[in-house]
Design brief:
The chain is an alpha+beta fold. 33% of the residues lie in helices and 30% in strands.
Length: 236
């Protein structure tokens, strides 16, 4: 009993592992094969356990041709202690991977929102559609309500959608990641009932028209992309 009591402070203050670090890199066109080989070697040698990498090829949208690397999930307190994973790790990236990339790229932190999602954080799929939503100034707190109503329609259609909020990473916004459990066939017209029909059924007749008005008032811009998981380039 004494041992359990001593553990209570650690249990009470332990942070949830819901944070992902997302990094985008773009290989030089003439170094594509060398880049993939170097990235796979780096991922599998240096990124294990809490720092495991999942690597995705970006198939469409403005970043098509690039790669997205997600690390985690971790807690913020784990990230406090991450450091640079050691001199050997940093040297390998700097000498073997970075020279094969262009100057284009970026990194962000995103935090999983369980209450807005229809799928568990680590219930992955090999193909995903990422929708990026940037809030208008002063409107970031209205976005969860929009997503909550969308969630009702996702559930009605059996869609697996993970929702994330961007944290200290540029303009404020949310990401909705549709995990295509059935593959690309889920994108075909007729695979599911139209979103408008499902939304009106779930939220009330005529509610979709109001949703579009609210969306226009609260969201500055939106764009989407298709990504494919690359297990051969990811951590093992």
């Amino acid at each position: 009993m004494l041992a359990i009591c001593l553990l209570i402070p650690f249990i009470g203050f332990s942070q949830a592992k819901i944070v992902l670090n997302s990094t985008r890199v773009f290989p030089k066109p003439e170094k594509f094969s060398e880049f993939e080989k170097a990235l796979a070697s780096h991922s599998q040698k240096y990124h294990t356990g809490d720092w495991k990498w999942r690597v995705w090829s970006i198939e469409s949208g403005p970043d098509a041709g690039g790669y997205m690397i997600t690390e985690g999930p971790n807690s913020w307190e784990q990230l406090d202690a991450r450091g640079d994973l050691g001199a050997e790790h940093t040297a390998d990236w700097s000498k073997n991977v970075a020279p094969l990339t262009t100057e284009r790229g970026g990194s962000s932190y995103i935090e999983f929102q369980q209450d807005l999602s229809t799928v568990q954080l680590t219930d992955y799929a090999d193909k995903i559609v990422v929708n990026h939503m940037t809030a208008k100034p002063g409107k970031i707190n209205t976005i969860p309500d929009l997503i909550t109503k969308l969630k009702n329609a996702w559930q009605a259609g059996g869609e697996s959608v993970a929702v994330y909020v961007q944290v200290a990473s540029g303009e404020p916004g949310y990401l909705t990641v549709t995990r295509l459990k059935g593959g690309l066939k889920e994108l075909a017209t007729g695979f599911r009932k139209p979103l408008k029909e499902r939304y009106n059924t779930a939220n009330g007749a005529g509610s979709f028209d109001q949703f579009l008005k609210d969306y226009a008032d609260d969201v500055e811009n939106r764009w989407s992309e298709l990504l494919t998981f690359k297990p051969d380039l990811s951590s093992k």
